[in-house]
Amino acid sequence: MYGGQGTLAAAIPGTKSDEIISILIGETGKSLRRKVKEVTCDLSPSMMLIAGEVFYNANVVNDRFHVQQVYNEAVDEIRVDIRRQLIAEDNARDKSEPPVTYSNGETMRQILARSNHTMMMAQNKWTDLQRHRANILFRHYPILKAAYRLAMELRRIFNMKISPTKAMGRMNDWYEKVMSLGNNNFRSVIKTFKNHAPTILNYFRRRATNASAEAFNSKVKIFRSQMRGVRDRDFFIFRLVKLYA
Q: Which contacts (CB < 8 Å, 24+ apart) does range 155-162 have?
């Protein structure tokens, strides 16, 4: 009742759309729900259904970080596939020959295993070690270099303060570049992006995200871990309210 911007209004257990819709409609009047202009959520069909049904007057926005994660996961699948292939080749090679090491002192299997976070970071945040490792990796696997560049391009598009119409043009150009890579890992990515195009582009109206909700969720998980689990749910929620309300 006394909350302002960033205030947690409700925490509803479960993900079943029918149950959550029933609770929200029962607890909030139609006139109040009509005032909601924007709802951010991930790419979950049930969450999008709930937002559309309950807050019928609002623009549903797919959170940009969840959208970027879909592409990043596809890039990581390529890295994992390459590493699996190298493991199979190493198992078949003559063990009397030592594995090839590169200028940073690592084998390619080690480079691939240790490049997970590097591939998700902007170059200006790389350490010298990460930069050296990435240069070796990109030199031997151009597909990873191209995929990484497109991940950074997608981030730049989301960082632009442009209209949904202009964003659509830039996203379409980005789709074409991704498709030109010809990698099967990206087919589902493009399908997901195009199926959710209107709600993805809604981000560019007000650039809203659910980052605050995700941050709170992270705090709850850390608190639960510190308490080594939850035995009394009601008491746990009581303590959360006292700490974070």
A: 155/68, 155/122, 158/64, 158/67, 158/68, 158/203, 161/207, 162/204
